[in-house]
Specification:
The complex is a heterodimer of chains A (291) and B (270).
Chain A (H helix, E strand, L loop, with lengths): L1 H15 L19 H7 L2 E5 L2 E5 L6 E3 L9 E4 L5 E5 L5 E5 L4 E5 L7 E4 L6 E5 L2 E5 L19 E10 L5 E9 L2 E9 L9 E5 L7 E4 L6 E4 L9 E4 L4 E4 L6 E4 L6 E4 L3 E4 L5 E3 L6 E3 L1
Antiparallel strand pairs in A: 1-2, 1-23, 2-3, 4-5, 5-6, 6-7, 8-9, 9-10, 11-12, 12-13, 13-14, 15-16, 16-17, 17-18, 19-20, 20-21, 21-22
Chain B lengths: L1 H17 L10 E11 L23 E12 L4 E20 L11 E21 L10 E23 L17 E17 L3 E13 L23 H21 L1 E10 L2
Classes of the chains: A mainly beta (291), B mainly beta (270).
Chain lengths: 291, 270
């Protein structure tokens, strides 16, 4: 009996000694890729391939597909906080989804828009339709809403192709017009009143409609891309030094990281990291890229 | 002659009747529940250990546990066969590395100190021999045993401390790419005693040794407790991280399972 009691007591003590759970000292539990928070944190680069919206990471090591988008998406944009995505298929209104792949809105009257992009407030979608900017979401201040006065007199084929609005209200846009037998492509900047800067129009050398303009979150890099460009000839503008130049290498689409440290670009075959040997094969061309 | 054959028959009968059948009062089958315990060098599942623990807080007295269920059947007066199933839970820490999103990846890396809980199921079978010269008769008394077990281990990261390289101002890191599963076989031996109380309750106490039969020299050698060096390739960091996990798990399990005191209680059934 005594031996039995000792054994049972020993077993109970030993069993109870290990019951206290571990309390995290640092970041706590972690799991690669499965949790929604990690999904939001890492899958923040958007591209559209063959009508399907994809999200990948800055390391281009993982590719997730959004399922609740319209069929045959051509253009899409992701906000800077990476929790709202806007998608457009030709002839259909823009659809807004959250990063959980849940549709949250359909924007009526947007079946034939030229371009759209998220404002740095992450809540407002800036929509371009016939050269006029409209908003979906909270109101924001902008230097200009009607860009159709940018065209010189006696020109034809006038078209505002794409637009982005900075946090301070600066409006960046691309446009084209025919002057005689020449098709002119330009990149324009309209500064808000009181900025102390003159509006700019920069000539773009090229024969393609530069219709995919992107601005990174701190507006340190503006990339000007052409969806129909087969010779991979994109441009980059950096306001800090007022430098407008060709993007380095065979670039068709390019977007910069939120702080401008590095870029991700597409060369008609794969998505590539601007500085490191990471790449994600897309097996051909894409129709949209955003970060 | 007839008288001699009668005497011979009676002698043989007396011998046959005095020989004991296997089993305790004829009962051969028993079941046991309990575990194998040892003082842990660490880390345990809750980060205890005499010499190893994760992070800034931990350590101290802790125990390694491997809970088990066992069934045994006496096949002769001095032999029994056993089957067993078990569950263990322990801690393990390792360091993973990933390259930063930009900069010189051959020089800089993000470092991740990880604390894992390892949990695993085991299944096995064994053979016991009972020391009849010391009064044992299977399944009762002093015995020795050898056994073989298969283990399936899974790990969960309970804590992570990331030190970002100076180049990585985004403070986001690449996925670690670790599949936290590990399977292996182990061979073991045990020396102990089954005591039977009130003709049906079985008390078991033993000392047990286990040696994991890892694939390859994961621990750097048959009796080495150190983990072998793994080369880091910044273009394939997942390979480094996976090998580091495998080696750290192997090393922790070797220490966890090598020696323990087994205690069990059960029933002698039939």
């Amino acid at each position: 009996m005594k031996l039995k009691s000792i054994l049972i007591t020993a077993m109970a003590i030993l069993a109870l000694a290990g019951c206290k759970k571990y309390e995290p000292q640092y970041d706590g539990p972690y799991k690669d890729g499965d949790e929604q928070a990690v999904f939001n944190k890492y899958h923040e680069i958007l591209f559209v391939k063959a009508g399907v919206v994809h999200l990948t990471t800055p390391y281009l090591d993982s590719d997730k597909i959004l399922l609740n988008t319209p069929s045959n998406v051509k253009r899409a944009s992701i906000n800077y906080s990476h929790d709202l995505i806007a998608c457009w298929a030709p002839g259909l209104p823009i659809v807004v989804l959250d990063s959980n792949d849940v549709q949250i809105a359909t924007i009526a009257g947007t079946e034939n828009v030229e371009w759209f992009d998220w404002h740095p407030n992450n809540q407002t979608l800036v929509i371009l339709d016939d050269g006029v900017i409209s908003l979906y979401g909270p109101n924001v201040t902008m230097a200009s809403t009607d860009l159709n006065d940018v065209f010189p007199f006696v020109t034809s084929g006038q078209r505002i192709n794409s637009v982005a609005v900075g946090a301070d209200g600066t409006v960046y846009f691309t446009y084209q017009y025919d002057e005689g037998f020449n098709e002119i492509q330009r990149f324009g900047i309209r500064y808000p009143a009181g900025a102390g800067l003159n509006d700019r129009e920069i000539y773009i050398e090229g024969y393609y409609a530069y219709d995919a303009l992107r601005v990174n979150q701190d507006a340190s890099y503006i990339t000007i891309n052409a969806s129909g460009n087969s010779i991979q000839n994109a441009y980059t503008y950096t306001p800090a030094d007022d430098y407008f130049r060709h993007s380095f290498g065979s670039v068709k689409y390019e977007v910069y990281s939120p702080d401008g440290q590095f870029s991700v670009f597409h060369d008609d075959y794969s998505l590539r990291h601007g500085q490191l040997p990471y790449s994600l094969s897309t097996n051909g061309s894409i129709t949209a890229l955003d970060w | 002659m007839k008288k001699l054959s009668h005497i011979l028959f009676l002698l043989l009968a007396a011998y046959g009747l005095s020989a004991q059948a296997p089993g305790y009062l004829g009962k051969r089958f028993y079941v046991l529940g309990g575990g194998v315990f040892s003082v842990s060098a660490g880390p345990t599942a809750n980060n205890k250990g005499l010499s190893d623990y994760y992070g800034d807080k931990g350590g101290g007295f802790g125990m390694n546990y491997h809970y088990n269920l066992q069934a045994g059947y006496a096949i002769s007066r001095h032999q029994a066969i056993t089957i067993m199933a078990g569950y263990l839970k322990t801690g393990m820490y390792m360091t993973a590395q990933t390259p930063p999103p930009f900069g010189d990846i051959n020089y800089y890396y993000d470092q991740h100190e990880l604390f894992y809980n390892l949990r695993g199921l085991s299944y096995g079978f064994g053979y016991q021999w009972f020391k009849t010269k010391k009064g044992a008769i299977a399944p009762f008394g002093t015995y020795g045993s050898v056994f073989l077990r298969g283990h399936s281990i899974a790990g969960d990261i309970l804590d992570k401390k990331t030190t970002f390289s100076p180049e990585n101002t985004t403070h986001q890191h690449r996925l670690l790419g670790i599949d936290p599963h590990f399977s292996y076989w182990s061979a073991g031996m045990e020396f102990g005693q089954n005591t039977i109380i009130r003709d049906k309750i079985v008390l078991n106490y033993a000392i047990q040794f286990n040696y994991p039969l890892f694939q390859g020299a994961r621990t750097g050698g048959p009796l080495s407790l150190s983990t072998p060096y793994v080369s880091y390739d910044p273009e394939n960091p997942e390979v480094f991280n996976q090998e580091t996990f495998n080696n750290a798990t192997a090393s922790r399990l070797l220490k966890h399972e090598f020696f323990g005191v087994k205690l069990g209680i059960g029933l002698l059934l039939f």
